[in-house]
């Protein structure tokens, strides 16, 4: 019997469409007080060759009371089994005590489940036909990112693709990730494909430049017939340094906006200079710099003209520096020190137009950019060789 999960993730989104856009079953009655419905079922209505040892899974549109949920399902011809309802995912799993009969068409009726306010689910019925027995262990075919991938975008979900339908309740219980994300486990979300073979897991924002190890416990992940994975599923990947400016074309032309020049001196001294290509009284430059694994110190805004209104702000942990300037003539710069091994430059704008810091100069202490080594900055990663 499936172990009941007391701490399942509340954010699960199951997108199994009833009938996959075709006939979604036949309502068996009208109830003017009903305010919610059966949102998804498996097997789907009209499915054939369903394994005789398969469990039945359905999802309510909203949370219902456990006693009413577990008493709401009936199968004809009569099938004796056990029903387990999980409130956190609004899912009901019905496991027959004995195998179904091959070639027989079964009709499942769901009726009588109520929510905490006493509203009843709209009665729903669907049919499927049993086939052979499933004894094959499910296989994990693919993950995105792939094992040992690097520069993984931190906010992107992790995708797992299996060769057959997986019981979502068993998958969530089996997932282990190390180190633990900053988000709480109840904030993780699981989105399943319409065929039940693909799931996307979102952990929220993962850490920068962090290597994660994910394990799927083969003793827990199972298909609806109870067959578990033959081996543990494992995935290692390393996240990107930051969100950066991947959406900005590194080869793009920015002749009509400000030119940003970044150069580094020894001892952790940095200068970011912006030079407007035209000078208007309302010209404004902005940018954000993130110390991915350190902090900023000794921040100074250079003001070459007395009417420039330059300012900056550090985050409470001193790992993010936001600056802006109104300039009329000449150039402006922000200077700082950092103990971070890498920096991310993002959200650079000139008069609200996206630009990129398109030049980087690395030189010795006291070097002006014109006498230092020049590189073209083609992405947001900028390692600072110590």
Shape: elongated
Based on CA atoms alone, the radius of gyration comes out at 29 Å
CATH architecture of the largest domain: Sandwich
Mean pLDDT: 75
Helix count from the secondary structure assignment: 2
Strand order of the largest sheet: 21-24-19-18-27-28
How many structural domains can be distinguished in the coordinates?
Answer: 3
What's the CATH class of the largest domain, please?
Mainly Beta
Q: Indicate the structural class.
A: mainly beta
N-C termini distance = 58 Å
Q: What level of helicity do the residues show?
A: under 10%
Please report which band the strand proportion falls in: under 5%, 5-15%, 15-25%, 25-35%, 35-45% or over 45%. Answer: 35-45%
Q: How many β strands by DSSP? A: 29
CATH topology category name of the largest domain: Immunoglobulin-like
Q: Main beta sheet: strand number and arrangement?
A: 6 strands, mixed
Q: Unreliable stretches, pLDDT < 50, 5 or more residues?
A: 1-32, 242-258, 362-369, 371-386
Keywords, please?
386 residues, mainly beta, Immunoglobulin-like, 3 domains, six-stranded mixed beta sheet, six-stranded antiparallel beta sheet, elongated, disordered N terminus
Task: Give a description of the structure.
The protein is elongated. The protein folds into three domains: 13-130, Immunoglobulin-like, CATH 2.60.40.1220; 140-239, Immunoglobulin-like (Sandwich); 259-383, Immunoglobulin-like (Sandwich), CATH 2.60.40. It has helices at 66-70, 168-174, and strands at residues 13-14, 38-42, 47-50, 56-60, 73-76, 81-86, 91-96, 105-110, 124-130, 140-144, 149-152, 158-162, 175-178, 189-192, 198-202, 211-216, 233-239, 259-264, 269-275, 283-291, 296-303, 311-314, 320-327, 332-338, 342-350, 353-354, 359-362, 373-375, 381-383. It is mostly beta strands and 386 residues long. Residues 1-32, 242-258, 362-369 and 371-386 have low confidence and may be disordered. A hairpin with a 4-residue loop joins strand 18 (259-264) and strand 19 (269-275).
């Amino acid at each position: 019997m499936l172990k009941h999960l007391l701490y399942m993730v509340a954010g699960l989104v199951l997108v199994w469409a009833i009938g996959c856009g075709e006939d979604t079953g036949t309502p068996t009655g009208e109830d003017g007080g009903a305010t919610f419905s059966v949102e998804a079922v498996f097997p789907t209505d009209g499915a054939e060759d369903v394994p005789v040892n398969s469990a039945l899974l359905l999802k309510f549109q909203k949370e219902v009371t456990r006693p009413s949920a577990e008493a709401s399902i009936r199968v004809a011809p009569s099938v004796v089994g056990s029903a387990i309802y999980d409130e956190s995912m609004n899912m009901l799993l019905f496991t027959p005590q004995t195998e179904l009969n091959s070639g027989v068409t079964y009709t499942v009726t769901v009726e009588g489940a109520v929510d905490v306010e006493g509203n009843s689910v709209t009665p729903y019925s669907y049919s499927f036909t049993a086939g052979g027995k499933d004894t094959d262990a499910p296989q994990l075919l693919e993950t995105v990112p792939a094992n040992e991938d690097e520069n993984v975008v931190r906010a992107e979900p992790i995708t797992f693709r299996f060769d057959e339908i997986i019981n979502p309740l068993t998958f969530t219980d089996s997932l282990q990730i190390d180190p633990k994300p900053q988000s709480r486990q109840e904030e993780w979300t699981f989105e399943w494909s319409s065929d039940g073979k693909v799931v996307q897991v979102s952990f929220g924002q993962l850490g920068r430049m962090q290597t994660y190890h994910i394990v799927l416990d083969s003793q827990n992940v199972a298909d609806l017939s109870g067959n578990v994975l033959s081996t543990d599923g494992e995935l290692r990947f390393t996240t990107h340094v930051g969100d950066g400016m991947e959406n900005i074309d590194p080869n793009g032309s920015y002749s009509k906006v400000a030119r940003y020049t970044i150069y580094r001196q020894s001892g952790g001294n940095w200068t970011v200079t912006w030079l407007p290509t035209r000078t208007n009284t309302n010209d404004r430059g902005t940018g954000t710099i993130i110390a991915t694994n350190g902090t900023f110190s000794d921040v100074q805004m250079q003001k070459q003209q007395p009417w420039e209104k330059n300012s900056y702000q550090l985050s409470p942990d001193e790992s993010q520096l936001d600056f802006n300037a109104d300039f009329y003539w000449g150039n402006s710069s922000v200077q700082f020190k950092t103990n971070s091994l890498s920096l991310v430059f993002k959200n650079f704008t000139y008069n609200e137009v996206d630009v990129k810091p398109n030049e980087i100069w690395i030189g010795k202490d006291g070097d002006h950019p014109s006498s230092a080594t020049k590189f073209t900055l083609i992405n947001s990663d900028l390692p600072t060789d110590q």
